[in-house]
Amino acid sequence: MRESLGALNALYPSLTVLAGAVVNGRENFITIAHVGILNHGKTPYISVSIAKEHHTTKGIHAHRAFSVNIPGENLVAETDYCGLVSGKTSDKAALFDIFYGETDFAPMIRQCPVCMECRLHSVIDLNSHDVFVGEVVRTHANPDVLTNGKVDITKLRPLLFDMASKKYWSIGQPVADCWSIGKTIKDRT
Ligand SMILES: Cc1cc2nc3c(=O)[nH]c(=O)nc-3n(C[C@H](O)[C@H](O)[C@H](O)COP(=O)(O)O)c2cc1C
């Protein structure tokens, strides 16, 4: 017996990020939980899905660039704030130290341990939302969250978002090695 939940998006938890753009000549940051990994290759693509009426949407369309910044648990209040108020009426950028890489109009947040500057690749129009597909031009990381040159999620401590509980969650313990534990089944079939 399975209970039908209708056409419910149950793809949670997701990562919580702060996407940055320049809107009307000012940096703005928006909290986004509907963020996607589109590939993991030499030319990486990611996506952010943003409601059309949000202030940030205008800036990404105008300048064809944005940033995706990953806050740690210590930034939970700032992250929530950026999802509560709009850049139309508040200067959210004043909360952060902002820096730029090589992509104009992709402002990044120094307090976020991992930041990606993106060039807009394409836009998927979903009526209420625009899904912005970005090519990651360069990723900037605080050495404090790296282990052997790789982002270490146990040091980054990203905020996970869950729609059902409407809470931010933290990561737990590793369960098993990827591309490895399945070999126990492969070897006996
Ligand atoms: C945890 C959290 C996650 C959110 N995720 C999204 C999202 O994925 N897409 C979206 O359009 N809005 C999302 N929002 C709402 C926007 O962040 C919010 O409306 C924001 O104030 C819009 O800012 P802006 O008008 O300055 O662009 C989220 C809010 C919170 C608190």
UniProtKB/TrEMBL annotation:
Domain Flavin reductase like intervals: 11-153
Xref: SUPFAM superfamilies: FMN-binding split barrel
Keyword Nucleotidyltransferase annotated: no
UniProt-listed Pfam families: Flavin_Reduct
Keyword list, A-Z: Flavoprotein
Cofactor entry: FMN
GO molecular function: FMN binding; oxidoreductase activity, acting on the CH-NH group of donors, NAD or NADP as acceptor
InterPro entries noted in UniProt: Flavin_Rdtase-like_dom, Flavoredoxin, Split_barrel_FMN-bd
The keyword Flavoprotein is assigned to this record: yes
Family: Belongs to the flavoredoxin family.
Protein name, UniProt field: Flavin reductase (DIM6/NTAB) family NADH-FMN oxidoreductase RutF
Record organism: Desulfobaculum xiamenense
